[in-house]
Amino acid sequence: MSLKRDFDAIRYYVVAVINYQLDCRDAKRRRPGDENYDSRTLYLPPDFLRSLSYAQKQWWEFKSKHMDKVLFFKMGKFYELFEMDAHVGEKELDLQYMKGYCILVVEQTETPEQKKGSKDKVVRREICSVVTKGTLTDGELLSANPEAAYLMALTEHHENHPTEVSEHIYGVCRVDVATSRVIFGQFKDDLECSALCCILSEIRPVEIVKPAKLLSAETERVLLKHTRNPLLNELVPIVEFWDADKTVDKLKRIYGKTNDVSVNDNELDCLPDVLLELVKTGDDSRSALSALGGALYYLRQAFPDERLLRFAQFKLLPCSGFGDLASKPYLVLDAAALENLEIFENSRNGDSSGTLYAQLNQCVTAFGKRLLKTWLARPLCHVESIKEHQDAVAGLKGVNLPSALEFLKALSKLPDMERLLACIFSSSEASGRNANRVVLVYLALRGCEQMAQACSSLGVILSHVKSRQLHHLLTPGKVLPDVCMDLNHFKDAFDWAEANNSGRIIPREGVDGFFRYWSPDIKVFLTELSHAESEKESLLKSTFQRLIGRFCEHHTKWKQLVSTTAELDVLISLAIAGDYYEGPTCRPTFVGTLCTKEAPYLHAKSLGHPVRRSDTLGKGDFVPNDITIGGSDHASFILLTGPKMGGKSTLLRQVCLTVILAQVKLLNVVTEKGKIN
């Protein structure tokens, strides 16, 4: 048995998966909400069937009548699984595909009809992309898993000779291809590579790009210990893994061409602001720029047209070192803390069950779940910021909780808008290779409409909440972008229902800037029918290109709407999670800052465990503890002894997790009384 995937056909199926309730219909075109809806069948639009080969069409005709069954399709001597059935085979039969392999996607770029009259009878095919675990941008695996799949480029520089003991200087670039998010920077690290370990433990990259034979032995050991079998790629230094100068030169050419300007050797104004800021820092950014160059060279193989960079979101890497903690805006969790406290992964099998993330994750959107992980990895340190977030969580509880729950309900079937928008932006200038771009634009517009309506409905709570953060998030024109006029423009421009059903943009009559081709002579002069239809399709394609260009002009607004929705999703998740704790809870009090001379301290009465619950331990089995550490009247540490399995590690995790929860914006922690300096 073999597993095969046709990328044109799977894209259609992915659209149905992304927005199942809106797009999926049975053989009689009934929606899932219809009482006679038959989930065992699937309606296949004629345009989709016409795009298939004879074998693909035959497979889909069988499958559409038996959606409740796994189809073993015989081809030659083998039975093969395709599309969604291939995923069933991978899961149930332990068949693995694309695990540790690079997939070279070669697509047909002309039809047999176009080949007529040519001596060469084989149709033209071209490499369109390279698909790996770190470059996956569509497919069921991506839509079903909200976790970011990071590709990470890493380079290293030593102030002394590489064989001598010295501090490490790392350049890191981590890329989430599915959201076009690029985060890069450089930092000094200690001999144990503590900061690098922290980054690896937090993001668990699925793919690593590194310069061949350049990393130290200690760095290689860290990569092996703190990752989970990533795909490793070695590039030739400078030639492939570019240095800083070559990276800047390539970026100027790419963005100069994108912005349609001529670029001189010393001209940097064409670069995005974040890149421009980094380039101007000189030697302090050379490793960071080299890491970015290594990532760009590798990604150029997967995306030959450089479309990933067109709307990429560049951000500087958060400070990763452990010096000067008072200047950092967040609590630094090293690799030992992330792993031993089981923040994201448990120690049993490495998944999220039983972790702090699983306990807090009540988010309904995929992009909200990713933001929650970011907040957990970097709890706040500034007291005023913590109090602002506590006020926001408090404003979503009590009498406002029903409105918050309605917000979640309205977004519960929302596709992964962050990834969907990135997919549309990156393919905005593509010709017509992806036949489902029209449907994707429709799904994006519907999703933006749903988010805008949900935020507007939640805004009713502002009349009786004092939280400054909620007022900023829910007031149109502040953090929340006002997209009503933009959405109305697209509603007036074309028929949304027709776009969803047929995958075609049909302009509404009389809309300024769009023209509909339709001549009564077509019905009379049958000899001109073929030419007229061809011209009509050309005009409709031109219309779609202008429409998608208009959509991309507002990319900042759409992204900001997604960001605002994600933050509200996480705040509501924290409000709900705080009510799940057993035993007494309180709002922790913060006194002073890291800059004060007063000795830091922690005081908690009847401290419980934020993860261990009676459903796993038995009712009343957990004994709360009173804890006081630090301050002027107490020791700054506790010396804990006791028998094996007596609860020493549990108490340690209990105290540490409580501090993290208090600083991660959660309103309630499991204690009768809590105070932190």
Question: Under the CATH scheme, which class of the largest domain?
Answer: Alpha Beta
- The beta-strand count equals 15
Major sheet description:
6 strands, mixed
Nearest-integer average pLDDT? 80
Whole-number total of structural domains: 4
CATH architecture field of the largest domain: 2-Layer Sandwich
Description:
Residues 351-615 form the DNA mismatch repair protein MutS core domain. The protein is an alpha/beta fold and 677 residues long. It has 4 domains: 2-144, MutS, DNA mismatch repair protein, domain I (3-Layer(aba) Sandwich); 151-323, 2-Layer Sandwich (Nucleotidyltransferase, domain 5); 405-507 and 509-571, no CATH class; 583-677, P-loop containing nucleotide triphosphate hydrolases (Rossmann fold, 3-Layer(aba) Sandwich). Mean pLDDT is 80; it is low at 1-22. It has 27 helices and 15 strands.
Identify the notable features of this structure and list them briefly.
677 residues, alpha/beta, MutS, DNA mismatch repair protein, domain I, Nucleotidyltransferase, domain 5, 12% strand, globular
Give a nutshell description of this structure:
The protein is an alpha/beta fold.
Topology summary:
Layout: E1 2-4, H1 7-18, H2 20-23, H3 46-50, H4 54-63, E2 73-75, E3 78-82, H5 83-92, E4 103-108, H6 112-115, E5 125-131, H7 140-144, E6 151-158, E7 168-176, E8 181-189, H8 194-203, E9 207-211, H9 217-225, E10 231-235, H10 244-258, H11 273-279, H12 286-302, E11 313-316, H13 335-340, H14 356-360, H15 366-377, H16 383-394, H17 401-411, H18 417-426, H19 437-458, H20 468-474, H21 484-493, H22 496-502, H23 521-524, H24 529-553, H25 555-577, E12 589-590, E13 601-607, H26 614-617, E14 625-630, H27 648-663, E15 673-676
Parallel strand pairs: 1-3, 6-9, 8-11, 9-10, 12-15
Antiparallel strand pairs: 2-3, 4-5, 6-7, 7-8, 13-14, 13-15
Helix pairs in contact: 10-12, 15-25, 16-25, 17-19, 18-19, 18-25, 19-22, 19-25
